[in-house]
Amino acid sequence: MGLPLIIVSSVRIQRVHIDQLDEPLRGFANVALQQQFLIRRIKIVQGDGRLLIYNPSIENQTECLECNGENPLRRRNCQWCNCLLPPEEDRVGLRRGERANRRTEQCHPVDAAFRDHMKAAVLAAYHAAADAGMVEAFVKMDYNSPTVLSVEALHRSDDFEEYILTKPDSRRRTA
Ligand SMILES: [Zn+2]
Questions:
Q1: Exposure winner among 90, 91, 122, 135, fewest CB in 10 A?
Q2: How far is the CA of 102 from the centre of ligand 1 (A)?
Q3: pTM listed for this prediction
Q4: What is the whole-number distance in angstroms between the Cα of residue 95 and the centre of ligand 1?
Q5: Residue 84 CA to ligand 1 centre (angstroms)
Q6: In which element (H, E) is residue 93 found?
Q7: 71: how many CB neighbours lie within 10 A of its CB?
């Protein structure tokens, strides 16, 4: 199986605290693509017996008809004037019972090969941090496969960008 053209070079993992384990959220990943481009706040979530990742997203907004203020679709009352908002379907022009799209992904892989690669890399990094018992970790990935090269504990205040810049990977793609 060929590698995608762009690969995940390192991942910052933040695991959620142990007493929140009955919640599906397991943590967040900040991902560096080829040490050049950062994606922040990918969610790692426990699904039906397996871990899933969600791309960073923002809440979709609609305007209040009374005050023209922007409100997330999930809201029933306007956050600015507190008037009762029309049902979600009416605000985005759907038929009754159709579900409105409450969030829009800010960035996401386009093809299946890169989607699979990113998911494999993020989950490998998450498991490496969990196996090492680290709440927060800087994980370097292999340039030739979505496998872990090294795991280092991080503090919350440590800057991921600085880590990427000051610890350049000597390994380069062989392909
Ligand atoms: Zn309003």
A1: 90
A2: 19
A3: 0.81
A4: 23
A5: 8
A6: none
A7: 21
